[in-house]
Amino acid sequence: MDFGFTIAAYAVATVLFVLSLGGLSNQEKAKRAVWYGIVGMAVAVVATMVGPGSGLWLMSLVLIGLGGIIGWQLATRVQMTQMPELVAIMHSLVGLAAVLVGINAHLEIGRVAEVFAGAELAFPQPEGPMTMAAYDLWLGLTDFAAIIGKKTAVEVTILRIELMLGIWIGAVTFTGSVVAYGKLAGRINSAPVQLPGGHMLNAGAAVASVIFAGLYLAFAESGVAAILMLLVLTALALFIGYHLIMGIGGADMPVVVSMLNSYSGWAAAAIGFSLGNELLIVVGALVGSSGAILSYIMCKAMNRSFISVILGGFGGTSGPQMAVEGEQVAIDAAGVAAALNDADSVIIIPGYGMAVAQAQQSVSELTRKLRAKGKNVRFAIHPVAGRLPGHMNVLLAEAKVPYDIVLEMDEINDDFPSTDVAIVIGSNDIVNPAAQDDPNSPIAGMPVLECWKAKQVFVSKRGQGTGYSGIENPLFFKENTRMFYGDAKASVDSLLPLID
Amino acid sequence: MTQGGQGLKIGAPREVYEGEARVALTPDSALQLQKLGHACLIEAGAGERAGITDDAYRAAGVEVVADAGALFDGADIVIKVREPQMDEVQRLREGQTLVSFFWPAQNEELLNAAAERKATVIAMDMVPRISRAQKMDALSSMANIAGYRAVIEAGNNFGRFFTGQVTAAGKVPPARVLVVGAGVAGLAAIGTSTALGAITLAFDVRPEVAEQIESMGAEFVYLDFDEETQDGAATGGYAAPSSPEFREKQLEKFRELAPDIDIVITTALIPGRPAPKLWTEDMVRMMKPGSVIVDLAAEKGGNCDLTVPNERIVTENGVVVVGYTDFPSRMATQSSMLYATNIRHMIHDLTPEKDGVINHNMDDDVIRGATVTHAGEVTYPPPPPKVQAIAAKPKEKKKEPTAEERRSAEVSAFREETRRQVALLAIGGGAVLAVGLVAPESFMRNFVIFVLAVFVGFQVIWNVAHSLHTPLMAVTNAISSIIILGALMQIGSTSGLITVLAAAGILMAAVNIFGGFMVTRRMLAMFQKS
Asked: Among A136, A344, A415, A429, which one carries the catalytic annotation?
């Protein structure tokens, strides 16, 4: 079997994938970049199906078609606000697929061993050149079995370690993603929940995983015992994934999602090692490192260490929080509209509340109306606004808000003092002045949008409760802040007819 | 009475103080008061000098009464602008309420007289400066007008443009305006002056207002002075007297500035004291002929040595010194409107139930602070307010790093980075070598590819725009379904179990491929330029 063509195609696919990720550096190039990714994936799949994966190719094709239809349906039906959930649940598929492929690899080793044993030949292959008889038998093996068939004892052991890694990471990704999905979709309480024992339980499960991994290697030849060990290992990993993500609060979900993204990449890379497939290794590593960097960038934006996010909850506080003085003053739509009519410059700060209320279209309409009147309207996006990095950008883009008026925190933070009106729509912690003023606040030191420096601040909010992280927000009590209570969409809609 | 209940009669007499043009009730505020269930009275001709005719009041449902006597008899609450004259106080009766500027510290006699008559007096000048009370802070609203008017008055006396112009008929330099004291009046003056195009400098003894000054477009005049600077928050947002050394330093700075300044507007006041002398005679002499000084502190003796209250004088060297004390009154229409609104808010707070009954709540900081006589007692001065006044603590001013310091900081940061990078490379390289010692060659081949791919991934992702992080996630999600290759390689196995598991893997990965790419495309298609 000639894999030369496949390897060449893999090289092409690798280049396309790298271009695809690199192309996301700006909006225009990104549209082209997706096509690079699609073509790269097509090249990779086709090359595999004519090469090392040619067995049962018709069935593969049918399955891909079927999966394609399901994926297509999912992607076209999903609301933009549900994007975080969708991404999370899709990660779980990759994780599960990695587990299945890993288990398969184990089964295949057993099968190959049987084939050799049936011919009364040694397996794994002894060091040195293969005997003639072994070679003849090997020629009869196809696909993955062929790769296993020629391995030596050390190589088989490494193979087993690799497939265990693949299964383990894949399983963590699977349950982790399902829990993340549940939290994002609101099906599971977003508060951090841990079983008694907390992180010790995770650590214990991790130690047990190592022990069972060792046992698996020890009993590798014995069939039933080996598969049992492997299943226990998988179960432990499933538990770790579940418990780890359950213990992380909803506010940290953006980091979690990108972390799981990273894991799914590492799982693919580990499987790539065990299957000896270069493209799997390369792409898995690309995805793994990109997810890791994304998590890092986001942790930095929140001024938290990666470890503290993973370990769940907010970092410990060193003393009592500052008491908030004053009162929250409410305002009605007419008051907000009057201020907007008088304002020359407006900055809108959207948050998760806007996504929940599906208010982006109304906000866009408001923006259009204000801009038509010659006002300078801009959007300030905090790096961790929403439940996914860049979540707000996507929602605003969906509502046809031009992206050149949508600015990042660092670009716009200095402009607040010269701004007439700042409107906070459904965000809370990212505009919390306690992060700067109160060293005892759980979010102390986290960079925040300094909207309170604007001449007037309106906060559109459902009620008087605290935000996702449960921290009191002194912004709401400031002199220049007015609370515009109500559902974000209804509130913004009520403004529209009043803007003249 | 427009609504149920008894309702109160609120009456505004004509101001008797000479030259006072303002009035405490406007048709607009009357309409609002009627909504609260009150009836309004006005003395005939009271609004005349503010440009409001008696007919305009009648149209707003206000009863116009012939003279002050009838008004004081008819009204439950008398609202005024200036502090009352003695004969006005004598007209008050038991239980009647007077809302007006009162200056209780200076008018002890009036205060005692009002208490004797068992009338309640609410002094608008005693409203505490807390955020809740801003809507009734008449001092601020009047100061705002005074600041504006001071610049207009200066412009009126100044022979040149405020803004610099280059015209065919020659080049005009912009006027240089110095505003001393950046309270409400000072800030209003700064805003007006910069709006007219003048180069505006401003000074205040409270360094924390520098930010406000700069936000209005003026340049803050810094003093190089180390003494503990004042914390405005401790004195209710007002300035306190400064030390002699500080004052010397300040005057020295002013002397340095004086020859180049065309217009000086002084607004420096210290509560309960004569105005500090900040613009001395020698400074006036240094100024160019035609320059203008507007002294908003004239009523308290003036910030300028040469100020004559209520007069405009011209010095020997041709500098105009304006010492008017009635700036708000000179804009009576505007100031009546704002003052009447302040009064309306006060009455709103006095009758919280909107049923036309006064609820004189002496536990309320604002009402307690403003009430100077109540139920036959003098209640001035009030206890300190429970809520601390405005103004945050002054921030530690950071020293601007010099060019060299910045350079050396950059260099050391670069060194630090190099050191970190080298360390990371050493550790990473060592780890790879250690693996290479034990692992077979076939593994190491793949390992090299792996390490390179991780490296490429790190390099590429740093450049991804923040706004595209969600598409990035979706795309990497789609790409991570490359795991399908593994399943494809296994599905051809002769073992049925393996085939089934691999088939499931292929199906899941395929969902992911199509879903991921589709979603990414949907998202990116939405990004568009305006």
From this structure: A429
